[in-house]
Specification:
The chain has 201 residues and is α+β, with helices and mostly antiparallel strands. Helices cover 42% and strands 16% of the residues.
Length: 201
């Protein structure tokens, strides 16, 4: 599949069939992610692939409980929400990232704390690399005939999910990707024209 075709065709899928996703297909997606650009070639991410139904149910229960605690409302048990729809997919890919600190970061931390704060929390080269990896994972999944939904909603229960997945500091859970064969694809929202989002100087 042409890369431009994949970029234009990919969209967030929120309803999945129950078909299993072969391990070799998942590994091809991970391989695609591994070729993404990362700061200093740090390759500072890995994936925890969850297919076990009991583990998925536990993760959903954790998220639902925190959402209830925060909002004071209990959602429908058998209906997907923006926080728990991952549990309705046959595969859940948990994106685990490691911190990245370059020589520039170290110099700023020691000599200019204010600039270091901006670089860490706004520029964040490490997180940019993880995001690039996720994007390439999604494109590979689409090229192989699968749908995905890149989620941060479940991270309302970030620390609890990290504990359930045995993710230990300094690593952290940064995103969850729901993965499977699409059951229904919603209308694709329009994109801004290239001319509208480009300035030449």
């Amino acid at each position: 599949m042409d890369v431009f075709e994949a970029m234009k065709g990919r969209q967030s899928i929120r309803k999945f069939r129950k078909d299993a996703v072969p391990r070799d297909h998942i590994l091809r997606m991970v391989e695609a992610a591994s070729w993404a650009p990362t700061a200093g070639n740090s390759q500072n991410f890995r994936f925890v692939v969850v297919q076990d139904k009991e583990t998925l149910a536990r993760m959903k229960g954790i998220v639902d409980e925190i959402v209830k605690r925060v909002t004071g409302k209990e959602g429908p048990k058998d209906k997907a929400t923006n926080h728990n729809l991952f549990a309705f997919a046959p595969v859940v890919v948990c994106v685990i990232g490691s911190p990245y600190e370059s020589l520039t970061d170290k110099a700023l931390r020691e000599k200019d704390p204010e600039r270091h704060k901006v670089r860490r929390f706004q520029v964040n080269p490490g997180l940019q690399g993880v995001s690039a990896g996720v994007a390439q994972f999604l494109l590979a999944a689409y090229a192989l005939g699968y749908g995905t939904c890149w989620m941060t909603g479940p991270l309302i229960a970030k620390s609890e999910l990290e504990s359930a997945l045995s993710v230990r500091h300094p690593e952290e859970l940064l995103a969850i990707v729901a993965l499977g064969k699409p059951d229904a694809a919603p209308p694709k929202p329009p994109r801004k024209p290239a001319e509208e989002i480009t300035t030449f100087r």
